[in-house]
Give the backbone structure.
Amino acid sequence: QVQLVESGGGLVQAGGSLRLSCLASGHTFSSYFMGWFRQAPGKEREFVAAISRSGGITSYPDSVKGRFTISRDNAKNTVYLQMNSLKPEDTAVYYCAARYYSGSDSRPEEYDYWGQGTQVTVSS
């Protein structure tokens, strides 16, 4: 069992920055690949970022590459998403997710655990 709790969402103006945090329960956090997804109303769930167990490998879609950075602190059981140069189209509920087995970072069905989500709203 792994429980994930996101925090750090809020309202920010376009061009601004925000850092999301995801705190995981349990003692095996370092055994999991971690990811961030987002979903806007009426749209499909979208892959945002993923990071390997030790943090040595990260992946991003083109939509956020160069603006977003995923990182993790295994000592704190926490994964972060640093979001810079935010755009109105980044507005969505952001979800933290964890998966044990290696697979495709961008596929939601590969992940075993999900957080409750945190709202990010970017105003123009």
